[in-house]
Amino acid sequence: MFPAAPGIVEMPAGYADWLTDIKTRIRRERLRIVLASNSAMLLLYWDIGQSIIAKQAAQGYGTRVVDRLAADLRDAFPDMQGFSPRSLKYMRAFATAWPDLDLVQRVVAQLTWGQNITLLEKLDTPEDRLWYAARTVEHGWSRNILAMQIETRARLRHGKAQNNFPATLPPEDSDMAAQVFKDPYLFDFLGTDAPRREKHLEQGLLDHIQKFLLELGQGFAFVGRQVHLELGDDDFYLDLLFYHLKLRSYIVIELKARKFEPGDGAQLGMYMTAVDRLLAHPDDKPTLGLLLVREKNRVLVEYALGGSARPISVAEWETQLTRALPRELQGSLPTIEEIEAELSGDVGGGHG
User: Fold this and answer.
1) Who's near 230: CB < 8 A, 6+ residues apart?
2) Which residues of 302-326 are buried (b: 16+ CB within 10 A; e: fewer)?
3) Regarding beta strands 312-318 and 249-255, do their DSSP bridges make them parallel or antiparallel, or are they unpaired?
4) CA 96, CA 333: separation in Å to the nearest integer?
5) pLDDT digits (tens, 9 = 90+) for 240-254
6) Under 8 Å between Cβ of 85 and 66
7) What is the C-alpha to C-alpha distance for residues 135 and 149, in angstroms, rounded to an integer?
8) Which DSSP helix (H) or strand (E) runs through 207?
9) What does pTM read for this prediction?
10) Nearest to 260 by CA among 225, 305, 322, 320
């Protein structure tokens, strides 16, 4: 059901010529649209949006004209969808958000119309829209994945993990490696009852390996868990081992269900050295380390990493419950351990 469009006689002078011009453009692009040329369709929508903006600015065309235009376009092209008043308003918003045609052609036109609507609805700044548009093209995100990345503030977390890469890697590798890691990591798929022991955290991540890989980001390939390393007469088991296809290096991930401690970096560095010597191919880049902790003091991490010769990144992990609480309330609520202690008198704890 569509609202009744205003009569043609009520339209301002010049409307008929404008309608004819738009019909001509649609007919010109119609064949390519039928042949599933997404780029052609996006550019056509942009062109219509720009035309609406120009007419409204120059001749004061209002909402009634857009409603009338929608009705006429549906009459002229009954087998084509996408010309409702709402769609035309999206086209106008689309053209307003992306005034640079060259940018539309290079990046935006590679997205689907649905993805572009998601960018319009969920983001307010050109910088944010361009960042998510570029990452969608680069990583092949679907519309649902794009929406999830926006909702979990991927841009604010991307490349934010503390690291010592500038001091431990060549400049050309340091920048690329820094962009692979984020802070914090969001493990909302673990549920609101966050694991309090490393083995439970590790098992939870592997039980949801697809979502875990999605949160880690593009390029991570899972190699193994509790990977056995025999060093001298002792046996060691690193938590999780990945290989990054773009960086061409192994990535050792150590999980902590507690706050960061200075000795964590030394243990991780030992595992990384072992992977370099025992597992890495001569053509591989140096192994990287990612230490995921429940909480960290940035100053303490800075000093700890400053004394390490191995390229290590430290980031926090969170669950949906933590992110949903107002920051001023997070410190005032009792922890799960405190609640359990109150109920049972038995205070449980994690181990490092």
Assistant:
1) 236
2) eebbeebebbbbbbbbbbbebeeee
3) unpaired
4) 45
5) 999 999 999 999 999
6) yes
7) 10
8) helix 198-207
9) 0.70
10) 305
